[in-house]
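> call design_seq(struct)
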């Protein structure tokens, strides 16, 4: 075996050093000596709880095994009645927590609290009584709102739903349907007095048949009485060249139902511009040809300068040359 070249011999120490550094970097670091061990002998690396702001919660108060199980405050009553409930605020931190309470939304404006500002001691759960008074002129049906708890840095919103006794009417309309490129725009309006959870079906027909057929599906919203919501429906595979009609059908529990439609024409921009120029050019040529034919039939003279040099006939007439001589005055002869 021949000895390695001089360059290879000089490079071997460098390669060996680089390989050793790489192996050291990949080797796992030893556990810290002062890390506390758990019961099974493994090191506990969880961070210690500091004295910073602790998380806190606000939710409807519950009782027994279902404590804090309610997702929202739900109340039922007739117009003019006062309904009672409680809000639970839990402070797991190491310092007292001061929060401010207020109502928001239609039903939230009907809420009053035992105290608008509440201080909850550390590691304590406090229940704040609240009263919701249904206005005497409230329309039967559903009303919604929120209880807002604010500690100055963050706020928690608790939903409130109220069922007002009396005859209810579920009425829903879909309005202002528009088609813009690959987007269908529309608006939903709750015309009744019940809280609605609408469902939507979409269909689009072109000149040669159906282009879009989406079956009825629930929409991710709750429509309060009198509320109007503007929404969009994506249509990424809209046609490039077609005349379409889009139909929207909305329904909701309680018999609410409505339909609306809109039409649009899809024309590619570049071909349309090119085709328009071709049409204009063709019309210009046809008009010029018709003008020339009309002049020929009427026998109109050609404009000056239209006769070419080859069309002029040569002339044979010659004029005698006149020699200049002395001028003789009449009557001067003697």
């Amino acid at each position: 075996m021949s000895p390695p070249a001089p360059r290879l011999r000089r490079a071997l120490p460098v390669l060996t050093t680089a390989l050793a550094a790489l192996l050291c970097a990949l080797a796992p670091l030893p556990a810290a000596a002062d890390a506390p061990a758990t019961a099974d002998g493994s090191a506990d690396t969880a961070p210690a709880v500091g004295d910073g702001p602790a998380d806190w919660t606000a939710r409807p108060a519950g009782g027994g095994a279902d404590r804090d199980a309610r997702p929202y405050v739900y109340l039922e009553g007739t117009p003019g009645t006062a309904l009672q409930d409680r809000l639970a605020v839990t402070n797991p931190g190491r310092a007292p927590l001061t929060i401010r309470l207020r109502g928001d939304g239609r039903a939230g404006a009907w809420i009053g609290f035992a105290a608008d500002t509440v201080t909850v001691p550390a590691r304590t759960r406090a229940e704040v009584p609240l009263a919701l008074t249904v206005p005497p002129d409230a329309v039967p049906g559903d009303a919604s709102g929120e209880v807002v708890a604010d500690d100055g840095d963050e706020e928690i919103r608790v939903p409130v739903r109220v069922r007002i006794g009396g005859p209810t009417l579920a009425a829903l309309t879909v309005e202002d349907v528009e088609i813009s490129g690959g987007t269908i725009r529309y608006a939903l309006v709750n015309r009744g007095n019940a809280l609605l959870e609408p469902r939507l079906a979409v269909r689009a027909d072109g000149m040669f048949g159906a282009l879009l057929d989406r079956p009825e599906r629930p929409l991710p919203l709750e429509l309060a009485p009198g509320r109007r919501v503007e929404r969009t429906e994506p249509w990424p595979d809209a046609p490039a060249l077609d005349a379409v009609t889009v139909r929207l059908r909305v329904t909701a529990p309680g018999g609410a139902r409505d339909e609306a439609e809109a039409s649009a024409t899809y024309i590619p921009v570049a071909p349309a511009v090119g085709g328009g120029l071709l049409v204009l050019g063709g019309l210009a040529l046809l008009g010029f040809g018709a003008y020339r034919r009309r002049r020929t039939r009427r026998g109109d003279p050609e404009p000056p300068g239209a006769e070419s040099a080859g069309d002029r006939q040569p002339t044979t007439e010659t004029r005698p040359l006149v020699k200049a001589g002395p001028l003789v005055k009449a009557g001067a002869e003697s």
